[in-house]
Design brief:
about 150 residues; 6 helices; about 70% helix; mainly alpha
Length: about 150
């Protein structure tokens, strides 16, 4: 059995935070509201005690306040307009792009791996391939020193 280290706990808590953020941002696209309402709404989610709550808030705040800028950033890396994406794919790409742009402490490989996992879990059949391709291009542009 693998030893539970503080790093592994933190990684797991961030994964839960990302999962909750995808769910929140998916719903936000269908029923727009202030991003602060999403934070309040998800504060009582059954999975929130397992999440890195500060990270969840940072993701929702970053995407909520910057979704238009994220769409603009995503556009050159895709063959379609961000507004035309499936809401799950768009939420995953928003989070991944936000992490690549604003959270340099998270290695780009972790960002992509987590996004692909979320797309596999919540997205359409091959959405994880699309997410992987887009975020790989994004990482090459946003984090050239890591590639």
């Amino acid at each position: 059995m693998a030893r539970v280290t503080p790093e592994r706990l933190a990684s797991s808590a961030r994964s839960v935070a990302r999962k909750l953020a995808v769910q929140a941002l998916y719903g936000w696209q269908l029923n727009p509201a202030p991003w602060q309402d999403l934070v309040q709404e998800y504060a009582t989610d059954a999975d929130m005690p397992k999440a890195d709550q500060a990270y969840f808030r940072a993701l929702v705040a970053g995407v909520g306040a910057g979704s238009e800028a994220l769409d603009t950033a995503l556009a050159p890396w895709m063959d379609r307009k961000p507004a035309g994406l499936d809401p799950v794919e768009r939420a995953v790409l928003w989070i991944g792009t936000h992490e690549l742009r604003a959270m340099p402490d998270v290695p780009f490989r972790v960002v992509i791996s987590e996004a692909v996992s979320l797309a596999k879990r919540f997205g359409a059949t091959d959405s994880h391939r699309f997410v992987n391709a887009v975020l790989d291009k994004a990482a090459r542009d946003l984090r050239p020193h890591e590639h």
